[in-house]
Amino acid sequence: MAAKYPHHEIEPKWQKFWDENKTFKVYNHSEKPKYYILDMFPYPSGAGLHVGHPEGYTATDILARYKRMQGFNVLHPMGWDAFGLPAEQYAIQTGVHPSLKTAENIATFKRQIKSLGFSYDWDREINTTDEKYYRWTQWIFLKLFEKGLAYEAEVAVNWCEELGTVLANEEVIDGKSERGGFPVVRKPMRQWMLKITAYADRLLDDLELVDWPDSIKEMQRNWIGRSEGARVRFAIPGIGDSVTVFTTRPDTLWGATYMVLAPEHPLVSRLTADEYSGVVKGYQDRAGRKSELDRTDLAKEKSGVFTGSYAVNPVNGKEIPIWISDYVLMSYGTGAIMAVPAHDQRDYEFAKLFELPIVEVVSGGDIKQAAFIEIESGIMINSTTPDGSFTINGLKPSIAIRNTIEWLGSNGFGEATIQYKLRDWLFSRQRYWGEPIPILHHEDGSVIPLNDSDLPLTLPVLDQIKPSGTGESPLVNAREWMQVVDLQSGMVYRRESNTMPQWAGSCWYYLRFLDPENSKQGWDPEIEKYWMPVDLYIGGAEHAVLHLLYARFWHKVLYDLGYVSTKEPFKRLINQGLILGEDGEKMSKSRGNVINPDDVVNVYGADTLRLYEMFLGPLERSKPWNTSGIEGIYRFLNRVWRNFVDETGQITRLSDSEPDLGLMREIHAAIKKVTDDMENISFNTAISQLMILNNYFRNMDLIPKSAMEIFVLLLAPFAPHLAEELWSKLEYMHSIAYEPWPKYSEEYLVKNDYEMAIQVNGKLRDTITVTNDASRDQILALAKSSEKVAKYVSGKAILKEIFIPQKLINIVVKS
RNA sequence: GCCGUGGUGGCGGAAUUGGUAGACGCGCUGGAUUUAGGAUCCAGUCUCCUACGGAGGUGCAGGUUCGAUUCCUGUCCGCGGCACCA
């Protein structure tokens, strides 16, 4: 009867040991080199942990443990990103205050995370909803405000009249509220914005400084979306004003046959001719009812209406009609375009639909068939000013663009400009469960920031969290809290009722981990200098753009103000892939394919779960869960146990002798492979190497103690509970956590002989074993003497002999 | 549509610079042990064929090369993100 290893005893035992001995407590000063390894901290949802969380956490834990064994002072903290919509929705439905529900969720998450044996320094645990934490989130907001990076603006939000509240995009489904199915409209409301666009260039350029996957960098570049072009002013004689458009193709100005404004462009009402005002208003209404997503997503067919007005094309003085259409977005560029149907796909479709003229100004395509948008192969035509003083005919578009911009500039019609896709960050939320924005409004309209000494501005306790009905946050229901009277001057102020978005707390949490107890500062600058930057940051790919971009933005502001010492917060980044359900689909309650880590830990133990998630495949890739696969890992750990421990729980098969050369080779090959794989974060192959070494032990009667020890050390980062248990059975009284990582020596990896492949015309025909000192001629002779080879070579002319040392011989014969 | 990413046995995957494709694990097959089952151990397991031998094979079609999973061109499919960005 082969005993199962007792993970139910071992795992809680060592978790308790680590807790009581504060094994993983980390200090801010050390002789050791530092290593800061960070997980994206979780939102503690009511559903508890799912198996996707431990994937990233296991990877960072393995590396943290490995780095400790290599002599690094490792900072590896965990905390909670606990503000957010679900707790507030739950409060509205049940009356349970978000702080209570949040505390409950955190307790569950913490219990689950601790059951997996991660080596966090729990003394540094933080919680974004703790006033001791968000006091500093508010402080950073004030710094942004002082720097002129926070401003108020009227911005359209999803307004639901029936619910009397503003909805997040995810709460709106097909233009209706998710709750109740009520209509939702776009309504402008006063909002706080953060001027992230002021940092666009640096956010773009400094991607050079970080060691991130190219694909993530590319996504951020695309999000920032820098594009070079020109602003061009078109006069509108009818109203004595002008409209400015942005274009990347000023060379095609002569082909601009009409102009399109976004329906909400401020000039639309002024330039709409009386007889068109009905249709224009109707069109604006319809566009306003669509969300931005609907406008872009569903508008496969072009639509639009003519305003009745005309603009003057500056390059040829021609009058062109002005239309409005929702394919032009107010939020990008100037909200107006010059339409060049011959050389832009969208304009081409629109012109075809409404039978507008199409004028070719770049030759090389067939504009009867499609818009010609090539920038390198075309040649400019039909592009001369009426007085003949300026032409770009005969030029390549890339040259023509430069020349045209110059001409526009010297004639006062426009100038070169850089446009970003990136928009300013809409920072305020009409919610209760978020950080209050530390701002006062005076009735004269002035805006006054709170003093540092007034922080934290805590959330008022509300008996019931319910919508204000006006679209403002539920905070306006706290009448006393909202009103502030200055006792000295008698002035009356109203508090800002908006709160911050969930992103705020996660924008700087990596800094608070450095110095979480500090009540005087967000963090001590000396401590910051010691730990920053984060050496390795691991989290889900869904945060590839927004979270990482926002955090980089705040970090750069803090850098400019001298509060942090590095330009970039996260040196190296890895995005783990999704763990899919057994059906290969994304895990979700509705599909019924969710695996609960508690169940896995209960049946197989935490070490098995950790190992299995790492063995599934490369960390970055998405991969499906497979329940019978986990059995294989469980068997492996049981085999490890039986290799070391007998049925009575005593260490067994232990020998004091030195390992022989064959075993030494296996051991050192394993050290090398596992170490290399650690550096490359290639844990699946590291684990298979441990399996190979363990299989080698299985065939031995006695195992030398030194060999056992090295195996346990290599296993320790992956299966820490089992490793601690075996380590203690090898009669060590202290934790394995800080034992030095084994080193390999090349001498054991060198063999006396090796195998060589022999190919004939590229096909494998035989393999031979040769000694290290064999010469090329000796090996070739040996190869040719092989019967299997001779069969294909004899009687044929040898054209070539390819000899790759240590690897193969390829004999090329005339066939 | 665009951008990113991937496509290798029945399944998850391995193959660090172009050099013996399929490591390791799962599953499956046979055997040992067992009253039986489970567990454990041993052996086999890419496909096809005329089978002690040979042919084919890394989504598909070409190309470069003595030699391609790896490099190049074209093409198909899956996944993720974005979505009229001027």
3D structure, described in words:
- A hairpin with a 4-residue loop joins strand 5 (150-160) and strand 6.
- 39% of the residues are buried.
- The two termini are 62 Å apart.
- The chain contains 26 helices and 33 strands.
- Helix 20 crosses helix 22 (683-698), helix 21 (661-679) packs antiparallel against helix 22 (683-698) and helix 21 (661-679) runs parallel beside helix 23 (705-715).
- By secondary structure, the chain is an alpha/beta fold.
- A four-stranded parallel beta sheet has the order 2-1-24-25, covered by helices on one side. The chain has a four-stranded antiparallel beta sheet with strand order 6-5-9-19. A four-stranded mixed beta sheet has the order 13-14-12-15.
- Among the domains are: 143-200 and 427-495, no CATH class; 226-420, Valyl/Leucyl/Isoleucyl-tRNA synthetase, editing domain (Isoleucyl-tRNA Synthetase, domain 2), CATH 3.90.740.10; 597-747, Isoleucyl-tRNA Synthetase, Domain 1 (Orthogonal Bundle), CATH 1.10.730.10; 751-813, Ubiquitin-like (UB roll).
- It binds one RNA strand of 86 nucleotides through helix 7, strand 11, helix 10, strand 15 and helix 11.
